[in-house]
Write a structure and sequence with these properties.
Blueprint lengths: L1 E6 L4 E8 L2 E9 L5 H13 L10 E5 L5 H18 L2 E5 L1 H5 L8 E9 L2 E10 L2 E4 L4 E4 H7 L4 E5 L1 H11 L3 E3 L8 H15 L16 H16 L1
Parallel strand pairs: 1-4, 4-5, 6-10, 10-11
Antiparallel strand pairs: 1-2, 2-3, 6-7, 7-8, 7-9
């Protein structure tokens, strides 16, 4: 099975291909802005360099975060459009969980993305015969609270948040990291294949970004509505 993987949950736009659980190719660009046109161009580029075409793809895999609200929507929209236009199956996967495919050791994998205001999007996983297994649901938490819960653990930190928070977590835990610690399109594709084998494809209309917390705009709107209710 050939799977196309897409992810824009961070400032790293990722496109990749996998044949079953093996990487074919991966293409990543790090920038300050995620753009749907850039993602579509990257999809075109990756197929232009290979002897396969997009019509050869069997499954569209997409990382649904958690991460950037605006960014994650881009990959989800493009993936849904491709799946519908090409009549392909689609599988939504955790962007954070895909990081755990980079590691085959016995440490617990803590995937981190900076969520600002001393918070992080996180996922905690273990490796089981090359397959990442959830130890918790993906969430968002203050980094101090998260560090306290994981005190004394042997952790491998992955993701863009690993760079920022490594020293902070190392104060209370046995922390390591690896060079290959960022989201890859091929790992999105591999994880989509593994989860497709287990649970099948997803309903196209139910493939949505994983918003584990409300956006700034939603919080501000709630504050305004609360203020109006108090006046009434």
């Amino acid at each position: 099975m050939i799977t196309l993987g897409l992810d824009t949950s961070t400032m790293r736009t990722s496109v990749g291909l996998a044949y079953d659980n093996e990487e074919i190719a991966s293409f990543e660009i790090t920038s300050s802005v995620n753009n749907s046109e850039d993602l579509v161009d990257m999809v075109d580029d990756i197929f232009n360099k290979l002897k396969i075409t997009i019509s050869d793809v069997d499954l569209i895999g997409v990382g649904i975060g958690p991460g950037s609200y605006t960014g994650t929507r881009i990959a989800v929209t493009v993936a849904r459009t491709l799946a519908q236009a090409l009549n392909k199956e689609i599988k939504a996967v955790s962007s954070l969980k895909s990081l755990a495919l980079n590691y085959q050791g016995d440490r617990r994998v803590l995937s981190l993305v900076d969520a600002r205001r001393n918070r992080a999007y996180y996922g905690l996983y273990k490796n089981s015969e090359g397959i990442p297994v959830d130890l918790s649901c993906d969430g968002v938490e203050e980094v101090e609270s998260l560090r306290n819960r994981l005190k004394g653990e042997r952790l491998l930190l992955l993701g863009t948040g690993a760079d920022k928070f490594k020293d902070f977590f190392a104060e209370e835990a046995d922390v390591a990291t690896i060079p290959d610690r960022y989201i890859k399109g091929s790992n999105i594709a591999r994880l989509a294949y593994l989860e497709y084998k287990r649970t099948g494809g997803d309903n196209l209309l139910e493939v949505l970004p994983n918003y584990v917390t409300k956006s700034q705009a939603e919080r501000e709107l709630e504050k305004k509505e609360a203020g109006l209710n108090e006046v009434d």
